[in-house]
Each structure stands twice: as C-alpha cells, then as structure tokens.
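Note to self: keep these together.
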Amino acid sequence: MKALPKKLLPLTLFGIAVTSLFSVRPAQAYTVTLEQVGSNVVATGGGALDLTGLTFEQNFLNAPPQIQANFSLMITGPGGANQSQYVGFTGPTHFGSGDLVFADTGSGDGVGIFGTSIIVPQGYISGAALSSSATFNNATLASLGATPGFYSWTWGDGENQFFALEIGSVGVPGVPDGGSTVSLLGCALLGLAALRRKLKLLKPIS
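Structure:
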C-alpha cells in the first residue's frame, strides 16, 4: 500500500478524530431536582429520554404530580393528560421513608418514575426534549421523607440511558460517556499537533 503524502497525514488524523467523536453513542438523561425554595419544595425536571431497551406496559389517564419516597415515586407535570408507562430498567426501590403526597401545582410534561415504571406523555418520541415541574406548598424535604442524595434508574446498551433524581444540593454526576468523548477528541488533537511539529522539523531546507 502506497504511503500517504506527508501533507495529507494531518488531515487524515483529524478526519479520524472527528469520525470517532460522532460515532460514540451519546447518553440520554432526564434529571429532576427536588429542593427547598422558600417555604415550599419544588421539583424541576428537564432533558430527554431514550425508550430503546424499555418495554411498553400501558396507556393511562391522569397521573397528577406527586411523590412517595418509600416507593420511588416522583411525577411532575400538570396531571390530567394521557400518559404511557414503560418498564425494564434497574435502580433504587426508594429514596426515603415518606408516604404519598400530592403536589399543589404542576406544569409542563407529565413525566416521572413510578416504582418499576417510567412515565412519559402518550405518543412521546425518544430523544425529544421534556420539561416539567411540581410544587409542594408549605413543605420541607424532611416532611416529604425525601433523603438528600443522587438517585438514578438506568437501562439500554451499557446502561447509558437514565432517569435521575437529585434531592438537595448534592451535585449531579456527569452524563456517562461525555468525558470519554471529549478526551478522545483531545488526544487526537494533541497527536495532530505533535505530528505537525514533527513534519515541520523534517521539512527539507530549500
């Protein structure tokens, strides 16, 4: 096989780096933060879900915003809309000792974790953006029986899809694969820079 011209080597290496970057399958995650805001507790969710790897269970009506820490139940949104239930993930069976409490208000998409099920709006398409909230008036994390911490329910290839719940200000770990993707591109670019310096040193003197 004929060797590539030296001028093409940097472009070839850069092309490999970019191709590798986009061939890495990104993780999908929906994250809910549950925190004290004044005299209320507010749950705010955002992100996207990939339903690949989950199994459709049923459609149903009217799952109002609610929490039940001793059953891994956290649903945000306005309630009253058609929703779908999916199963097939792994994760904690509780995130505290609290019993069922309904939220006073909710908005956005009806989405949440319900024991062994993921709840999404009926007709939801994997990867579409979701956002929702729920407010528990005159409540505290303690009164809701929610233990501060980070909890996640995972599924998919390498379990890189997940629903996450952050209770209190504990900090959400990085989305899986994000760091490795950046590192891959960084190493490739460093290699490109080193190769360019080497070629410059080997350039014939005219």
